[in-house]
Amino acid sequence: GIISALRALATPSPLQVLNFLDITFTLIPLIVLITGWKSLPLHYSLFALAMAIFSLSYPFIPAEPLSAAPRYMLSIFPIFVILALWGKRQHFDRFYVACSLPLFAVNTILFISHYWVA
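Below the sequence we write its predicted structure tokens.
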């Protein structure tokens, strides 16, 4: 799925911005999972790995292959456990809140305006 999304991002189309957002919000949870997997119990790490492989193994449509992947990444709860452990550090907590609040506001405005946000 990620390779198909990178190919779709390389070809000029009106969906390039959406593909870029899909790739970004798919890779961020994967990077968090890769960097923090040692702080999780083994069964949480295996569950997260299985869910990530399952959600990325079959691209949705050729023009926008990762269109639903960010939504499926939200169901991988060990990522939020890692973020909660990292959130104990005040610097990370402030950085996370500073990034999350504008994204929340933009997605809320898009949702209220009847745009597809997931």
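The chain has six helices and no strands.
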